[in-house]
Write a structure and sequence with these properties.
This protein has about 70 residues and is mainly alpha-helical. It contains 1 helix and no strands.
């Protein structure tokens, strides 16, 4: 009888855990989207700075070691 109660309690805990994961899923997706957009913005910023640096070097006559 005790094992039956423990099994039922475990099933209840697992059902609650599944509900909690379902509640967290949209929040995790939002977190991943935020990370994606931060990375994308940082990459775009790097590319702009790198392009500006190359243009400055070209104007100064630097051939980047070639």
């Amino acid at each position: 009888m005790e094992n039956t109660q423990e099994t039922q309690q475990l099933q209840q805990y697992l059902a609650e855990a599944v509900e909690m994961l379902d509640d967290l899923k949209p929040k995790l997706a939002l977190f991943e989207k935020q990370r994606y957009f931060r990375f994308k913005a940082a990459l775009e910023n790097y590319l702009k700075l790198n392009d500006g640096l190359r243009r400055s070097w070209a104007e100064a006559g630097v051939t980047n070691g070639k």
